[in-house]
Design brief:
By secondary structure, the chain is an alpha/beta fold. The protein is built from 11 helices and 11 strands. The structure holds NADP nicotinamide-adenine-dinucleotide phosphate (NAP). The site of NADP nicotinamide-adenine-dinucleotide phosphate has 25 residues, from helix 11.
């Protein structure tokens, strides 16, 4: 079994960051907007801040008291020319989340607005691509996994993982099945898949009897179980049965963090 180590993929992505930053005319300067109160997303935001500081990228966190306050702050930031990238600290309710589509496409560093998503689906090269979905693709590419004619099952259809993976996997000539909570016979779909991408947020959900032998497994899930971080795949259960697997932690998460910085730099290039 091969471990698809995310650290190596991330290092490869990061290696030209300094050179690219030295070439751009404007230093990136990002704003993260959220509403006070979500502890889990605070951890993610602190990580982003730390990564930005490492590359001397401007970082501003604006936490609002309520939705009205958020809308006011968003308007100010949107009109602020010194801000080169904007992202929302999630979760946010649907009403507020729709404002993502008002972020100018170039400043949408997470690539989740309607404009970038449209570009991605139509194959436009300058689309900003949601980092987690791109992390899956970069990992597949780094380890030389050829998807042409392969059956790939994606489990999870969110706008940050499952959906943006569709055009990226089609571009690699894979045949795709997208599964979700209403999929009738999930095991039947998974047992014929050469590659399974798990993104559902359920600790240790995938077991070896659900997949075919020598499948390649990509684990996007990040779950907290008994004080530890685990993925959506039961790593211990499947590890001697599969051809390759991304670990959690140490897999897609680290690559995602590197790709957010990549998107931030891209937005000023
Ligand atoms: P999400 O928006 O909650 O979506 C979860 C998806 O899983 C939904 O499409 C849901 O189906 C599907 N699902 C849930 N239970 C299922 C089941 N039993 N069988 C089949 N499908 C099921 O989640 P997300 O934001 O995409 O995140 C997914 C996981 O990835 C989470 O653990 C999250 O923490 C992690 N994540 C990791 C990174 C990283 O950098 N590694 C980044 C982002 C997220 P329905 O659509 O039918 O409800």
């Amino acid at each position: 079994m091969e471990i698809l180590d995310g650290k190596q993929v991330a290092e490869n992505i990061k290696k030209d960051f300094e050179e690219r930053l030295n070439k751009v005319k404007i230093r990136p300067n990002i704003a993260v907007l959220g509403i006070k109160g979500d502890g889990a997303s605070d951890i993610y935001t602190r990580k982003i801040k730390k990564n930005c500081e490492k590359y001397r990228i401007g970082f501003k966190l604006i936490l609002s008291e309520n939705v009205k306050d958020f809308k006011k702050n968003f308007k100010e930031i949107k009109d602020d020319e010194s801000i080169t990238g904007i992202m929302f600290q999630q979760p946010l309710d649907g009403n507020v989340l729709n404002l993502i589509n008002e972020i100018p496409a170039q400043k949408d560093i997470e690539g989740i607005g309607i404009n970038n998503m449209g570009k991605l689906f139509l194959g436009n090269e300058d689309a900003q691509i949601p980092c987690t979905s791109k992390a899956v693709i970069k990992t597949i590419e780094y380890y030389g996994i050829n998807l042409e004619g392969k059956k790939v099952a994606i489990v999870g259809r969110s706008s940050i993982v499952g959906k943006p993976l569709i055009p990226q996997l089609l571009k690699k000539d894979a045949t795709i099945t997208v599964c979700h909570s209403k999929t009738k016979n999930l095991v039947k779909e998974l047992q014929t898949a050469d590659v399974v991408i798990m993104a559902i947020g359920k600790a240790n959900f995938l077991k070896k009897e659900m997949i075919k032998k020598d499948a390649i497994l990509i684990d996007v899930g990040i779950n907290f179980l008994d004080g530890k971080i685990v993925g959506d795949i039961d790593y211990e259960d499947v590890k001697d049965y599969v051809k390759a697997i991304t670990p959690v932690p140490g897999g897609i998460g680290i690559v995602t963090n590197a790709l957010l910085i990549d998107n931030i730099i891209r937005s000023v290039e």
